[in-house]
Design brief:
By secondary structure, this protein is of the alpha+beta class. Among the domains are: 87 residues, Orthogonal Bundle (Helix Hairpins); 146 residues, Heat Shock Protein 90 (2-Layer Sandwich). The chain is built from 9 helices and 13 strands. The strands form 3 sheets. It has a 6-stranded antiparallel β-sheet. A 5-stranded mixed β-sheet has the order 8-10-11-13-12, covered by helices on one side. Strands 7-9 form a two-stranded antiparallel sheet. Helix 7 runs parallel beside helix 8. It is elongated, with a radius of gyration of 48 Å. The two termini are 54 Å apart.
């Protein structure tokens, strides 16, 4: 049923408990009232009701305008005909007096021209001198005549108060009064039929109003129903469910697209969290095992020396530091990706900050026989957290030096480009295989070439998360055996 679809979720179970004798327990009555209240409060019901009200008012307004137009047109034609006949009768009287008027009326009666008209001739006091009745009008009473106003339209009423005759009066130069009237029955019957037609059309209006409102509500709320069904599917554990987007170009299509993007982001975060937890559980197992073995060895040793205890404790501290470092980095990544990372932003000169980091790594690079060059522009100024940006530069420089062979070089450049602060860290190292390049941002991922180096596999994940937290972006370009170029784009101070 259409109403079950339109108000789905608000009438569920509303007929439960009905018996053949239509007895409903009090509890079921309460449930039915609650379901009815929920149905009335639904958007679909309100859309249907509003459409019905607007549709009905529009039809009523249209009928009123048409009725007024038809009534006015018929009345105007009636009055014009009466006044034209009044002028004609007045002209006959002016030519030959009352006798000529009677003869002309009798002549027109024979031809049928006066069949529909009423004519009355009276003196200045209102006493009737001559009257001509249409056959069917005899016996009706005439209302008082306004002698002072020529062309005054008087009304003749039946006992029921209906309008049957409209008359026009004219005062002659000799003080006598001529009245000419015409039946209004035809006009009144036509208008009455018009009203009856409207009354009979009310049922059609109700059907069209509610039917049209229901169809519009169903069509308008279809994307909302899709979203509700998608959410229910997700509640069952299917994070890959998406809203079916209809290409309508309206706000509901935009809502569906944004909802799908949100679902995609949530799915990515949940999957990332699961992957991170799996990776953390796997990667923590090794340092935790080493820490436990070291402690057990120290405890189980019979003749243990102080130096041995110190070495065991030192190893335990080193392993615990690695575990804490891994957990802290994962926390930073999660905070940045979920948008809750606290950034102590301020205006910073990027060239000064990069020089500080380069100075720290220059000695490490020289020991490995790697040259570092910096091309920094003083125009590179931005609003950012200096500690976090320093962390980004340090991670990129550390990776560049770590994976560059002796005799290679690392260059870093900072400048303005297309309204963004541009940072490039480029090396001449071993490069990243093409199939591994998309995965370098994954948490705890370490490529084949990185297995020989110390690390947690979280550096690039943290770099990207921090860059995203600053509303920037990062790209990586690499050719195996040639080198790698990491490019960071951050909003400038004006943005």
């Amino acid at each position: 049923m259409w109403w079950m679809y339109l108000f789905a979720g608000s009438v569920t179970g509303s007929t439960k408990g009905l018996t053949k004798n239509y007895f409903i327990p009090s509890g079921e009555w309460v449930m039915s009232l609650k379901n009815l209240t929920r149905m009335v409060n639904t958007i679909g019901f309100r859309i249907t009701l509003w459409y019905f009200v607007i549709f009905s008012l529009s039809f009523l307004a249209l009928f009123s305008i048409l009725y007024f137009y038809v009534s006015s047109s018929l009345t105007r034609e009636q009055h014009l005909a009466i006044r034209a006949k009044l002028k004609e009768v007045e002209a006959d009287y002016m030519k030959g007096g009352l006798r000529a008027l009677k003869e002309e009326i009798e002549l027109e009666e024979q031809t049928g021209k006066m069949e529909a008209y009423f004519v009355r001739f009276s003196d200045s006091g209102g006493a009737t001198i001559y009257i001509k009745w249409p056959q069917w009008m005899k016996g009706l009473e005439i209302m008082n005549i306004n002698n002072s106003t020529p062309w005054w339209l008087s009304l003749m009423h039946s006992a029921k108060g209906k309008k049957y005759l409209e008359i026009a009066s004219s005062v002659l130069p000799d003080g006598n009064i001529i009245q000419v009237g015409r039946s209004a029955v035809y006009r009144e019957r036509l208008l009455e039929r018009f009203r009856e037609t409207f009354g009979g059309g009310i049922i059609i209006i109700i059907i069209l109003g509610f039917g049209g409102g229901t169809l519009i509500a169903i069509r308008a709320l279809l994307p909302v129903r899709n979203i509700i069904n998608t959410v229910r599917t997700i509640e069952e554990g299917r994070l890959d469910a998406r809203v079916n987007v209809r290409q309508t170009g309206d706000e509901l299509e935009e809502l569906s697209l944004l909802f799908n993007r949100m679902l995609q982001r949530i799915e990515g975060l949940v999957n990332g969290m699961r992957s991170a937890l799996d990776s953390v559980a796997h990667d923590l197992r090794t340092p935790m095992t080493r820490l436990r073995n070291t402690a057990e060895s120290a405890i189980q040793a019979k003749d243990i020396h102080i130096q041995t205890c110190r070495e065991a404790l030192s190893d335990c501290m080193e392993e615990s530091e690695q575990i804490l470092r891994m957990l802290n980095t994962l926390m930073d990544i999660s905070e940045a990706e979920t948008g809750v990372m606290r950034l102590n932003t301020g205006k910073i000169n990027l060239s000064s900050l990069i020089n500080e980091v380069v100075d720290l790594y220059r000695y490490v690079a020289e020991d490995r026989g790697i040259s570092i060059s910096a091309d920094l522009s003083d125009k590179a100024v931005l609003i950012a957290d200096p500690d976090r940006i320093r962390q980004v530069i340090a991670n990129l420089l550390d990776n560049a030096i770590k994976y560059t062979s002796r005799g290679g070089s690392v260059s870093i450049r900072a400048d303005m480009e297309d309204g963004h602060v541009f940072i490039s860290v480029k090396d001449t190292g071993r490069g990243i295989p093409e199939d591994e390049l998309p995965r370098i941002w994954d948490r705890l991922y370490r490529g084949k070439g990185a297995l020989s180096q110390k690390g947690l596999g979280l550096g690039l994940s943290l770099v990207r998360a921090v860059v995203y937290a600053h509303h920037g972006r990062i790209e990586a370009f690499s050719r195996e055996g040639v080198g790698t170029d990491f490019r960071v784009y951050l909003p400038d101070v004006g943005k």
